[in-house]
Design brief:
single chain, alpha/beta, Transcription Regulator spoIIAA, five-stranded mixed sheet, 4 helices, 5 strands, 30% strand, anti-sigma factor antagonist activity, STAS_dom, Anti-sigma_ant, STAS_dom_sf
Length: 119
């Protein structure tokens, strides 16, 4: 009988916050599930609360998105003083957000440039 000992975490996520002229950008890459959503939440919610203008959450490099990650996006959407713009691309990530009705809380965009240029 063998035992399973992973060398790498099963799921991973990288996140970064950048202050840009007219926007706060939260970039996320990797997988957003119940294991990684707390790390995303620890970055996204403070950024949403402290955002002076608008918040852009870039999920274009997220390859896997579950309800835990969507919940953080929606929480950021309700915490931010202004409208939250989410770069969701055109694939799985966007479809997951659309199915949940996230567009009622945040605006969805295909590209980061579109989200940053929006009012």
């Amino acid at each position: 009988m063998s035992s399973f000992e992973p060398r790498d975490p099963v799921a991973h996520v990288d996140e970064a916050v950048e202050d840009l002229p007219g926007a706060t950008l939260v970039r996320v890459s990797g997988e957003l599930d119940h294991l990684t959503a707390p790390a995303f939440e620890a970055v996204a919610l403070p950024a949403a609360r402290q955002c002076r203008t608008r918040l852009v959450i870039d999920l274009s490099e997220v390859g896997f998105l579950t309800s835990a990650g969507i919940a953080v996006v929606l929480a950021a959407g309700t915490e931010a003083p202004g409208r939250v713009h989410v770069v969701a691309g055109t694939g799985f990530t966007r479809r997951s957000l659309e199915i949940t009705g996230a567009q009622d809380v945040v605006r969805l965009w295909d590209t980061r440039d579109e989200a940053l240029a929006a009012d």
